[in-house]
Design goal:
The chain is mainly β. It contains four helices and 34 strands.
Length: 493
């Protein structure tokens, strides 16, 4: 196999900050740009990327798995002034939507299998392809297989999409598996509809993202709890197959047009959504996520999750916490104006967040097909909600900068609303069962970075919207983003 190497500097393509800000999701793109710039990586149109997955390599290079079935190696993507070169490492694969690297090998999740790929003779191209698992069936384009990065024990986790939103046409569709380094296939969970990414959360627990659809009122981040049922019952025939039997009895059939909170009390295996992303207000087709492990090089949000969205071409933040044995947490706006549908995200240890994707397949705001973009912290800390955590009587809200005391103590600066979705077999759901919790007390921390809110009217099982429009920093700055959304599965005891 011949190695393709392209030096982009020779083509005279300049690296410019992406100047075209697309239609605003939050109307704050100009404010965002003061803190996080978007840079186009100067790559040629051939090979056409259509990025499906990314992996940062130990030697500083970037690996790309493409929807067209290639693995490409990019040198120079993480340089301050990038002049990347591209090397084609492997071809002949199928929709590479999971990519990891460990001990000289790529662990590749493609539609039909997880494959271990190596370059044994050292010539820069793959020459060893070992199938670790092809336990599931495949026969429809919608049967996407999303894979995690390689975990410390050498495992890859795979979430298998259904044959369509409503159908099970091949074995084990809607299942999630752990594929061990020696090729053992272990069933983990069921009830997946159409994942968009798999990986550990900031605490190291395995999660996946789910798009709005049947039995999913909105997009969400979900815990892949061993033995768990993610909510879509069309996968139940898989429980009668050999690997499905390892999970024990199939769950009870969920009641149509019920509420997830109520059904989780009735169905032992049903796992509540950890973080709900209110539809269109916070994404429309959420995809790959990564925790920021760059030790502050990417700004003040170290260890938080950064989540892409295909349809709206945006990146969001999320934080999770374990309360009474159930995962829950919040999502926050972060950066809009990206130029394609985001399918993959990856951090470098230098503090850059790489995004990639395509605009092929579904409607998407970003109108460019083949590119990589890099989000860079400008060094200017934004005044933002850093994170929200549940408390017995309300919430603790931490900010990236001190809050002006008189602003923090003004109860009128905290507006709240709660809602849930109809848990139903139909596509999506309106926001229902609306309530308006009231902040009745505020305690400001000594460093003025955290407010502890006493709230009257908390509702378990509801998303709690926050509007902090009136708050000001000690320097009289408004928040870059005034909203956040916490999914309250359990009120702490």
């Amino acid at each position: 196999m011949r190695t393709l190497t392209i030096t982009v500097a020779m083509l005279g393509i300049a690296c410019l900050a992406h100047g075209q800000e697309l239609g605003n999701t939050w109307g704050t793109a100009n404010q965002e740009a003061k803190h996080y710039r978007i840079v186009d990586l100067p790559l040629p149109e051939d090979p056409q990327l259509e990025v499906g997955s990314l992996a940062a390599l130990p030697d500083g290079r970037l690996a790309i798995g493409t929807r067209r079935g290639e693995i490409l190696i990019i040198s120079g993507a993480f340089e301050p002034l990038p002049t990347p070169t591209i090397q084609r490492f492997a071809t002949g694969l199928d929709e590479v939507l999971g990519l990891g690297y460990r001990d000289g090998a790529f662990y590749v999740t493609q539609q039909t299998e997880v494959t271990c790929i190596r370059d044994k003779d050292g010539d820069g191209t793959a020459d060893s392809y070992v199938n670790l698992s092809d336990a599931w069936g495949f026969g429809h384009y919608h049967e996407f297989a999303w894979g995690s990065p390689v975990q410390p024990d050498g495992s890859v986790y795979v979430a298998l999409g259904l044959s369509s939103s409503y159908h099970y046409k091949a074995p084990y569709r809607g299942f999630a598996f752990q594929i061990t380094a020696d090729g053992k296939t272990i069933p983990i969970a069921t009830g997946v509809r159409s994942a968009g990414g798999v990986g550990p959360n900031e605490h190291g627990e395995m999660f996946y993202v789910e798009s709005q659809g049947p039995w999913n009122g909105s997009c969400s981040l979900k815990h892949l709890k061993p033995g768990g049922f993610m909510g879509h019952p069309i996968c139940f025939p898989g429980y009668d197959l050999p690997l499905g039997k390892l999970l024990g009895d199939k769950p009870l059939e969920p009641k149509n047009q019920s509420r997830l909170y109520d059904e989780a009390k009735r169905i032992e295996q049903l796992v509540p959504y950890a973080v709900v992303f209110p539809y269109r207000r916070m994404g429309q087709s959420i995809t790959a996520f990564r925790p920021d492990r760059s030790d502050g090089r990417f700004g003040p949000f170290a260890n938080q999750l950064f989540v892409g969205d295909y349809s709206l071409s945006i990146v969001m933040r999320a934080t999770t916490e374990l309360v009474d044995g159930v995962w829950q947490g919040a999502c926050y706006p972060f950066r809009e104006g990206l130029a394609t549908g985001i399918l993959a995200t990856e951090f470098s240890n230098k503090g850059y967040l790489i995004t990639g994707g395509t605009n092929r397949g579904w409607p998407v705001r970003g109108n460019r097909k083949y590119l990589l973009q890099r989000l860079e912290w400008t060094g200017v800390t934004p005044f933002e909600v850093h994170n929200i955590s549940a408390r017995k009587l309300g919430f603790a809200v931490t900010f990236t900068k001190p809050v002006r005391p008189e602003s923090a103590q003004d109860l009128s600066n905290y507006k709240m609303r709660s809602f849930t979705h109809i848990f139903q077999k139909f596509y999506g759901s309106p926001e229902v069962d609306e309530t308006f919790p009231k902040v009745t007390g505020v305690t400001l921390s000594a460093d003025a970075r955290m407010v502890t809110l006493t709230v009257d009217g908390l509702v378990e099982g509801h998303v709690h919207d926050f509007d902090f429009t009136g708050l000001r920093s000690a320097d009289d700055e408004p928040l870059v983003h005034q909203t956040a959304h916490y999914t309250l599965n359990r009120i702490p005891k």
